[in-house]
Model the fold of this input.
Amino acid sequence: MKDLNPKQLEAVHTTDGPLLVLAGAGSGKTRVITYRIAHLIETCGFRPEQILAVTFTNKAAGEMKSRVLTMLDPGLRTGSPLISTFHSLCVRILRRNIDKMNAAYTRAFTIYDTDDQLQVVRRIMKDLDIEDKSLTARQALSAISWEKNRGVSPAAYANREQVTDRSEKIARIFKLYEDRLRGSNALDFDDLLIKTVALLRKVPEVRSYYHERFRHVMVDEFQDTNGIQYELTRLIAVGSTEKVHGEEKREALWRERSFCVVGDIDQSVYGFRGSDFNIILGFQHDFEGTRLIKLEQNYRSTQTILEAANGVIAKNQRRLPKNLYATPELGAGEKIGYYQSFDGDGEASFVAEKIQEHLAQSPGTRCAVLYRTNAQSRLFEESLRRRNVSYNIVGGFSFYERAEVKDIIAYLKLAMNPNDDVAMARVINTPVRGIGKTTLEALARQQRDLGLSLWEALAIAVEQRELLSRTITALDAFRKVVVSLGELVAAGETLSEVIKAATMDTGYVRALQEEKSVEAEGRLLNIEELVTAAVEAEEQGESLRDFIDYAALVSDTDQYRADAQVTLLTMHSAKGLEFPVVFIVGLEEGLFPHSRAFESAEDLEEERRLCYVAITRAQKHLYITHAMQRRTWGEELPAEPSRFLNEVPLELLQDMSRGPSWLGFALRPETLHNRQAAAALRGEAPARVKNSSNYTGKTYNSVDGVREFFKQRARSGGEGRGPARRDGAGKRKELASGTGSANDSEFRVGSRVRHSKYGDGVVLRIEGAGEEAKLTVSFPGYGQKKFVAKYAALERV
DNA sequence: TTTAGTACACTTTTT
DNA sequence: GTGTACTAAA
Done:
């Protein structure tokens, strides 16, 4: 405890009553939580099981768990505190108690991820014949989720005052969606929280069990909680959601008990999924006698980086004023590197080069590239790969999202809950068993008429024998496969045995082996990996149930490895992490801030908080970059510099661009004058702040500057773009002007080429000519791949 | 019924 | 650029 400052120490030592810790970025928040847990166990004598700490991501939970475990005296480690995400906490509670609620669910319930939910909605829309483009399954689902999270039932939604054509459709989908999930004994991510809250409210024994058990409840990243999550934690910590009146009652409640929430409204970046930082603002009001502790000493970043972060966040209206003090020993630090590139490739090259410099100068330095959307990662992957810099990427596609992995898991889900319609629809004909569209439709019809699950409909179909005998045989074979898997589970077979049966006895692996294609090889490897993961989980004492739940709740963010030299990740995933060297890329209007945030001032402020989060990840070196044009949806479009660039105090920036840049323009005296005038105007008219036009006003000058710059560029021919740049537009022009010939094709049989994913290979065959040509390329280790020359990112070596 | 080929939508951010 | 959903042919 000696290395804590007085404020941190106060937070650790406050062990009775409600406690609100406002922790600025880099102020040692996780440290405080872990020390506090250790203190409660080692000094106050609470048993580890009496402590609950809730986080939002598995990553944060895992990190906290391991830090607590290494800190605890091994002698006192009789059990471990429950450190978990909201969702896994709910799964845990529901698996033990959901049947006590009498709500048609059993403890064998299945969890539906977003993909499963979409399948359900798509099917419903098909059944209801709602298939116009104005309402996509995705939109319907997000509307439903929004309503669910606000406690609106399908009936209440249907009876609302304003009924539009759209809302009427959604109401019908909503109703069926809930029915079908219930029929499949399935819960979606929202349900996990909603049903847990309902359970704790309805069943006093369950509520008091958890209330009595957890004497100390802690919530990390509290600014990201939504109403339901808040309710959940209150039900556990307080035993009710009522305000506790009267000094005496409060004292009785808080004796040897605490409710500690930690957060920072400037880092609230999950508004899109319903989080509401008004909850943190109202906390003291909800709990009389709340102890408030502010952690304002930043131990992470240099003075320069902090000033940049403060400069940006100061532009937000909706916030609590806050001071974040730098640690003098860390010094002012280097200026912030600014780079304007011609396009996305140029940006990626700059970043990769700088990373190489840093790694050469001080080997072992951890670098991170932060972007707004996952789609941006590709260019950085390519440029790093070209330079042989190994990297670690967080997000994108997860292992558990791969088709073959989901297939095997669907079999396991069916073994435990054959009524899981989504799982059933997924594997009933995988591998192919001759159960096609017609048969499925027949089953679906019966299902609808009799109100059954797909599984029950199948059993009846087999019995009635009204289908072709060949079909009946196929259906019965499938039924037997699932039944025998179910028997294994019922007999208490081990996780590894069941998963082996799910891969072998279903014929899944055999089908892949017979395919003998490269893709099948890859799938087999993934299945192998899944089995290995299951065996390892079993060694950790996990059951099949645990394993499946884990697969449903892990996100891509969890793949983060702290030891990697270079990490590529979104700004959202970067929350809670720190890196000596940080690149924030794609600072362009429409990308960051994202165009979806343009409509409302609130959303823009959330984007700005995201910018604040991104900047404060940096410890020593920070770079910000933007491109003059960027490829979106395959189209190269001009991009305007982000308004956030203008909000960083410009004197903190050092221009590393080749040639003239936006920054150079912004720093010209007359421009500066305009900026100051604009700033003064803003200061005089604070009432207009809510108007979003105010935001565009700030970048107005700079936008003009960019146009000017573009004009100049057109005349002078532009900055030095890399000679290796593949310019799709240029090629198209050549073709159009009639110069296209066989010569036009970059490739010949025998050419050596490089692909971003498969590495170096040799062209085996070319079909067609020019950019439409189809190339067959052999890659050592990956086999043969086919590409269309126009689309494949193939480079000649 | 299956498969190959093509059209098309996709891009916030996460459990 | 990429993955999925639909369509046409076998």
The first strand of chain A starts at residue 17 and ends at 23. The two ends of chain A are 58 Å apart (CA to CA). Confidence is low (pLDDT under 50) at residues 681-745 of chain A.
